[in-house]
Amino acid sequence: MGLKSWLGRRRGEEQAAAVPPAPTEQDILAALNRVNAMLAEGNAPPVITSRVQRIARTIRDTLPQLRHLGVGTIESYSVMATATDYLPEAVGGYLRLPREWADTRPIDGYKTSLMVLVDQLELLAATMDKILDAANRADAQALIAHGMFLQAKFGPPSGPDLTLGPTP
Amino acid sequence: MTTPAGESDASAAAVAPLAPPDASLTLVAPAAPAPVVATQAPKMAPQVPSAVLPELDAKVEGFMSALGSTAVGSPEFAQQAESVRTMGDDDIRRAAETSNRMLQQPVKALKDGGISEGSAVGKTLLELRRTVEDLDPSQAAGAKRWLDLLPFGDKVTDYFRKYQSAQSQLNGILHSLRNGQDELTKDNVALNLEKTNLWASMGRLNQYVYVAEQLDTKLSAKIAELELTDPDAARTLSQDVLFYVRQKHQDLLTQLAVSIQSYLAIDIIIKNNIELIKGVDRASTTTISALRTAVIVAQALGNQKLVLDQISALNTTTSGMIERTSEMLKDNSAQIQEQAASSSIGIEQLQAAFANIYATMDSIDEFKIKALDTMSQTIGVLETEVDKSRAYLDRVQAHDARNAAGTLDLSTLPTS
């Protein structure tokens, strides 16, 4: 390694703190637990809790697939950001409001804060489902490919059979 | 043996060099808006809806008839004059406060928004440049000569090992680039909300401008009429009422111009953010594409498996695919190896991929310089405008004994 690149590396290490590392699976799970704690602490209504739990379950199911998706993809970013940012932000925004006011006072057209939050959670849930489905589908492709390989190796030839029968 | 069509396509795609993404990324910095002339403001602002016109006319008529029925100089007359002085004060003040707050927006965008060096996006891009420079295959020209002279050996292995050590940093960078895009999008949503509020308040101001114009015409006619019969009354009317109507008209126009200026400034910030989102997106894709190329080149040159988190999907499928197909097509495997090792995919392709990242980052930098420039122009214009409306705020604060619910208060009317 040349001196220049060594210096460059040193410089890079010094600056590494400037860009925080990407959240790991542990961070994502911890973030989901924090959201759960928030809900319990804020005594959130069941409509919210059930939806958040559904999203959390989907994210937990998707986590092992993230490695296959690759960290750099937009899908895996969406999953990470949902757990660490979008979901806590949505739930926190609702829990910060006085409950009575949030559940009865329309803020967006005729929608109350509760309804607005439910809409957001529905959208997040649908998106997470879509990503999980896509990830599973990618995995299933491997199964199909393997099936084709086995077929090619051991299955009956697909062309005209030229194999001679056993010698009499 | 037949090969399923999809499978052979996939293996061909895995071996063929990746086409570089569109080379020319041009980010356009929007031009700074020209100063808005106060007299043109009513034409630019949201127009008074025709459905409201009768109601506004009725207000003017009501005021004129009330004025006609009171003796000039009486306490009732003074009250009438007062309602002209306080007409629309609340709306003007609110609009002035909004534009004052709005002035903070471009300043904030300049200081720590996406286009500034100190922003999260700026820092991340800087970090990306450093990391990429560290991985650049052409950085050390000597390395290439080594590759040429020596049989592929440790140098190549060493080079690709760098990728592995840069992984967590690259993960952090890619993550925070996307984070930055999220932040910019959130900013734009908030700015759009401000725009909506500003639009409503401009609509209201424009209604007051209409009322002021009508009052001006009607009062001028009445004063001209009175001048023949009662010159004293005409003078009082002109001094105590018409003067304030005209002053109010001027204030309204000024504030309307300031609001429009803020509105245009917000537009600039939004457009800048959109451009930056585009640039950051390109920075991530070119980076991932370079990593992808590196994986394939590593395989081709060193027959070395380079496993990168960022693209593990491609990595597992690609190498798995090559293995699987080579097993399946035993007779073709030699050819595949040969293809992989041929110069069709090599250091040149990797260099091209890196050149793409540099080009992207350079065009973002170029954009930032231009955007910073127009942004400071925008702020300059906005500052002078906002100063004008501050003068109004000061005057109103001095004259605070007002009757907020005067007869010319329009705050209950719809704005659009």
UniProtKB/TrEMBL annotation, chain A:
Residues 1-22 are annotated as: Disordered. This is Uncharacterized protein.
From TrEMBL, chain B:
It comes from the Bacteria. Belongs to the TelA family. This is Toxic anion resistance protein. PANTHER family: TELA-LIKE PROTEIN SAOUHSC_01408. It holds the Pfam family TelA. The lineage of its organism: Bacteria, Bacillati, Actinomycetota, Actinomycetes, Propionibacteriales.
